Amino acid sequence: MSGTELLYSALRAPDKIHSMQRIIERLCHNYQRPVRIMEVCGGHTHTIVKYGLDQLVPEQVRFVHGPGCPVCVLPQHRIDAALQLAAMPDTILVTLGDMLKIPGTQSSLQQARATGGDIRVVYSPLDALTIAQKNPEHRVIYFAIGFETTAPMTALLIEQAQQQKLANLFFHINHVLIPPAMEMILSTPECSVDAFIAPGHVSVITGSDIFTPIARRFQKPLVISGFEPMDIMASVERILHQLNHNEAKVENTYSRSVTSQGNRKAQRLMERYFEPRATFLWRGIGAIPQSALQFRTEFADIDAEVRFAEHCPAPAPESGHGCICGSILTGQAHPQECPLFAKQCTPTNPQGSCMVSNEGACSAYYKYRRDQ
After folding, report:
1. In terms of DSSP bridges, do strands 279-282 and 286-289 run parallel, antiparallel, or are they unpaired?
2. Whole-angstrom distance, CA of residue 337 vs CA of residue 65
3. What residue segments make up the domains of the chain, in order of their start?
């Protein structure tokens, strides 16, 4: 089934997409150069590629893919820390499934598990509570990852562990934040991004107002979108409308789920346990100030980076094995431009992080576009 057929099937109303196509064509028909729109959510990337939205819009509109996958941007030294922690005696490392295949400098968690490491995949962070309760003689370390979307679940897990006084449950925190990454991309001299489709799930937690300083400072339209094909097309229409009227503001086309202030209860829960790190190294991108969370100092006793510091290596130069994930994550290249794509680098043998996660751009192109 073609992207257009999939799109029509999803919408069950082809006239809607035809109408939106015509509106978009009218809005950009006098453009002298392409408008580059970056989405910073892996869910949006997959919708765009799966349904061929980039092929439905006029050539004056180009989608570029940003750092929308938390697994993809996790640097190798953090994976190496997970491997060293898992290798400690009487230790169970708990994490989410996408983490298993991502390569560190020498190995991956999947390879470590195959050679005897007690590494367990959970579907919900709260499953770590049960594992810790059933294994009181073991250290249980939850390797937490994700954007603002999943950080509240980690904070809830911490709160419940504190309430239950579980002395054997520790946490390695790897939650990263979207707005600082967007600011970093816009601050680079080679940046050619004209507008953003902002992440829907992140915005449910943060609220839409968090993006207003970015739109104002860099004078770029920024539209929060849902995940249906029509959501993204509507967001493109709003971006083009802003550009045609010399506007640069935050708009929300996902108001059925996103408010201006976000989920204040979730925000307070995160603030109780976490604070911003001074800096954090993003895989393929580099160090970005204030772009990740860490434990507040009063929770050092359950912070695996503090308690087991000797097993948590310092940041080191990345070995990319020839892949161009850094360029893909900053919108400067598409996955099919990588010389390893669909050859040495596949989902079963990923050479770079963008192929590992279901939310990665390379994974999306491999699934839907590798034969094009």
Report:
1. antiparallel
2. 13
3. 76-178+263-311
Q: Which of 371, 362, 370 has its CA nearest to residue 46?
A: 362
Spatial separation of the C-alpha atoms in residues 357 and 361, rounded to whole Å: 9
Sheet of 119-121, strand order: 119-121, 91-95, 139-146, 169-175
Q: How many CB atoms lie within 10 A of CB 220?
A: 21
The continuous run of DSSP H or E covering 39 comes out as: strand 35-39
Checking if the pLDDT of 73 tops 70, the result is yes
**CB-based contact 322:351 (threshold 8 Å):** yes
Q: How confident is the model at residue 198 (pLDDT cuts 50, 70, 90)?
A: very high
Closest C-alpha among 321, 331, 311 to residue 353: 321
pLDDT on residue 321: 66
Over residues 126-185, the pLDDT tens digits come to 999 999 999 999 999 999 999 999 999 999 999 999 999 999 999 999 999 999 999 999
Topology of the domain covering 76-178+263-311:
Rossmann fold (3.40.50)
Contact of 338 with 326, CB cutoff 8 Å: no
Q: Of 155, 174, 171, which Cα lies nearest the Cα of 265?
A: 155
> Is the distance from CB of 347 to CB of 363 less than 8 angstroms?
yes
- Residue 127, burial from CB neighbour count under 10 angstroms (0-12, 13-18, 19+): middle
